[in-house]
Amino acid sequence: MRDIIEGKAFVLGDNIDTDQIIPAQYLTLNPAIPEEYRMFGKYALSGVPVAQGGLPKGHIPFHDSSDEFVSPYRIVVAGRNFGCGSSREHAPIALAAAGIEAVVAEFYARIFFRNAVNGGYLIPFESAERLCERICTGDLLRIDVASCQLVNQTTGEQWSLRPLGEVAPIIAAGGPVRLPARLLRSNGVWAGRCRKTPEPAGPQPLSPPVKRYNRLPVSSGFGAGRGVSGQGEPSPSIDRRGLPFAG
Fold first, then answer.
1. What gap in Å lies between CA 88 and CA 176, rounded to an integer?
2. Mean pLDDT, the chain, as a whole number?
3. Cα angle at 61 between 5 and 143, to 5 degrees?
4. How far, CA to CA in Å, does 157 sit from each of 56, 80, 114, 149, 152?
5. Residues 160-212: pLDDT tens digits?
6. For the purposes of burial, counting CB atoms within 10 Å of the CB of 71, is it exposed (0-12), middle (13-18) or buried (19 or more)?
């Protein structure tokens, strides 16, 4: 994770859903294949209505003629409920493939937020103010990730974003799968809240023996005559349920 994120802003409004971020017809693409991953970048935000893309004026394309796969914008600024709709993980993947490093919104749909964090695709910042009405598409922004400070270098305005909190180390590690390797110390003790569990003192009681069904010969008692081999010989034994023992 970079300490400073800097680049041009692309501004959207409220309720940008995952079908606008990456339409369903492109979900057959496999992001694990490099050629198809680039296609996610090409079609990112292609479902946003033309008049609502690139606020406040609108009608501003997310890509320009210089590169159809990677957008010239690095930060998406949006309103409320960003990433609502389906739970597709392809939404943050598409934005990341297009070169987006951070999204700043008033709040997110929970599943989009977790997908963005868990995959380490981009950083979802939350703002207390309605920045989609204070920032224009094309403004040059600078985000200090550690201090959560956003500066509009075009206008000189500055805002404090909400702290990332407990997801900060997950984002820094690139997702929860990579988190343990970065936090594990050489002596096997976890950094942070986790501590090594002390060994119990003194002798410990043995585990109780596992109960087994009693074996009864087929020729007498319960189940007599049930297990018969090819020549009429009784099978070795059965359990109390009338089932033969394996082995």
1. 18
2. 82
3. 10
4. 17, 21, 30, 11, 5
5. 999 999 889 888 888 887 766 545 443 333 444 444 445 556 665 665 665 55
6. buried
Closest CA to 49 of 93, 13, 81: 13
Cβ 72 vs Cβ 10: under 8 Å: no
> Which pLDDT score is estimated for 49?
97
- Structure tokens belonging to residue 171: 């984002």
Judge residue 128's burial from the number of C-beta atoms within 10 Å of its C-beta, 0-12 exposed, 13-18 middle, 19 or more buried: exposed
Q: Which residue has the higher pLDDT, 83 or 235?
A: 83
Indicate the length of the chain as a whole number.
247
* CATH assignment of 4-179, among 3.90.830.10, 3.20.19.10, 3.30.70.60, 3.20.20.80: 3.20.19.10
